[in-house]
Amino acid sequence: MNIQLADVITIGDEILYGQIIDTNSAWLGTELTQIGLKVRQITSISDNPEHIIQTLNQVKKEVAVIIITGGLGPTKDDLTKQTLCRYFNTELVLHEPSLLHIAHLFKRYDREVTELNRQQAMLPATCTPIENPLGTAPGMWFEEEEVIYISLPGVPFEMKRIMSDTVLPQLKEKFQGQQIQHRVIQTIGLGESFLADKIAAWEDNLPDNLKLAYLPNLNGVRLRITGFSNRQDNLEEQLNTETNKLQELIPEYIFAIGEIPIEAAMGNLLKEKGLTISTAESCTGGHLAHKLTSIAGSSEYFMGSILAYHNNIKINQLGITPDDLSQHGAVSEVVVSQMAANVRKLLNTDIGLATSGIAGPGGGTPDKPVGTIWIAYADAEKTIARQLSYNKDRLLNIEYTTYAILNLLRQQLNHA
Amino acid sequence: MNIQLADVITIGDEILYGQIIDTNSAWLGTELTQIGLKVRQITSISDNPEHIIQTLNQVKKEVAVIIITGGLGPTKDDLTKQTLCRYFNTELVLHEPSLLHIAHLFKRYDREVTELNRQQAMLPATCTPIENPLGTAPGMWFEEEEVIYISLPGVPFEMKRIMSDTVLPQLKEKFQGQQIQHRVIQTIGLGESFLADKIAAWEDNLPDNLKLAYLPNLNGVRLRITGFSNRQDNLEEQLNTETNKLQELIPEYIFAIGEIPIEAAMGNLLKEKGLTISTAESCTGGHLAHKLTSIAGSSEYFMGSILAYHNNIKINQLGITPDDLSQHGAVSEVVVSQMAANVRKLLNTDIGLATSGIAGPGGGTPDKPVGTIWIAYADAEKTIARQLSYNKDRLLNIEYTTYAILNLLRQQLNHA
Hints:
The structure is a homodimer of 416-residue chains. Chain A has 16 helices and 17 strands. Chain A has 416 residues and is an alpha/beta fold.
């Protein structure tokens, strides 16, 4: 097999200082893999000319394609472009179409073109400029000694648009014929080592061209099978066979095949069954509703929520009995069950979900320490409540609770 | 100045395939900078022994500290540990305290120790093991030719705990005396090039040991001043002076000094003024409430929300006039203003915020295309509505809207 390799280089101190999280590289990894290029290495460096040149010299020996992001933009692109001129032994010249594009963009916003922006139309003479429909810094395509170098701005939506419109289609044409394919099987409810034990025999018998990886996250363990082959149909069939075996082995833990978040998988199930849903949230403060409504088309099944942070709202809007509130406290089986059942009736949905807990860092008591959380599910026939106990930080508690209640919903929908 | 450098190496195909986003490196960048180590490069590579060794050989010449994350865990740590044994010319031996720790952890969950977990207590003979309080894979500390190598599991909360408990305090002691300090000034409401124009003269006059960076994000442009010095007091004073100048130059665009999200800055303002707040959300679907409640202590000022996705809930819970809904549509100045004013009264708060729009990808019309969004602010004296128009994707529309309404809140609180 002849898998072509690509490297990603991101330029900018903000990544090294930890002031932004590098989401561009993950996106590039996914997209390059999809056209059959395997990402060999991602290197994040500062915008220092010597370091840029040293890195280019090191990686060009290893790969066919180098994608460089960052270091372009009205306040910083000069350095990267000067460095690329040095590396490719060329000089900056004015690129008229880019200047026109910048003027056009600014006209739309009714702004004058500044000198900084005018400089963005100066490009290395040996590059092929790549149009940036959403911004002022054009991309650049270089080829030298059979290596392709592509330099792009670091602003995520500009970079993605240039890649999708121009770079990916051209690379795909150049490197057709090889196949890398992933299949992701998403599990919830079983830790990594126990899962590994349960599927050890299956894993040992995987064909040589398939590789398994365990990817634990907040919301369970994703299993990724990666296949390499020269024939797409072959791979597809192999991956189907192995996925089917896995589904027979651990059906109760699998919630989705593919990179579908659990909130999308639940959305599909609700649509299939023609059910509607609402939420009554205290400790999750809207995060559960946000997850449900982050899915396109969620208005088909998600009707609304009452976020009852203050107890008055639990009483006045959700109709929680004041006696129960004072006797059991807001974080209790009695109250969370009422919340789920009442929001269901109030917003006229088939299912109601509710959360109430102490997200922290304050608000804990010896009886109910930070991380004590109740969740509930209600439909026309029953109400089911569960207690969770975490001791993580506020945001983790909110996220874990959201996933736990989505898993409770999944278990109920699967039995319905 | 004698700034010591550190490199971060992350091991794992999942980052290269784009299946997870590398948040560990950003966290490490922040923490290492805080103890005076400058991160020179972050390198993400696959769990391939040759590549690991090649990378270690390349970077060890450049830095004093190398932090390696990933490649440790019940299903994969053997390869990384074997590779480190090869690199350091040593072999695996049983580390009794680690075995006891694993047994202890498993007893708490009432689970048997598996063979996979037992192997996690086998460690390279020349390393100093580092306790992992939250997991089964211990960290490892190596020293060779004046370079410190630290290998840690990739699970974020385990890695962070080991760093905070053990690694950072020890590194801090070893490398005391140098200072790197950042000051972040967060702006909103002005694009990068216009901001750069406005503060050009100030930037040109910055002292040589201070460096300015523009960090644009969804929510404005962060300005970062980085200072290098051997004397902490000096730096602090310099940064204060320059920050003050900037505050005089562009007061209306600055919403915070420091890495404080706008929702936290608004929380502080609300507490200061003793005001409470509620939200009525349609297109943001809980994201605005989630942002507000992600801040510890937000229950002091945030009371609750009505998420009215379906029009019936706008009518029944929020009291929107059905005639207005049918005449103007849910996405209109009239309806969003009623939503803000009504939720304020209903939940008995000083301020009400409301959003209504077409987040997409479906639901657009020629009149109101995807990205047409109305936001409103209401207090006892007035209701202010604004129209936004975006044309990005669903999640970006939700996020941009959330930041736009937080900025509207900021402008009103600053005048109140």
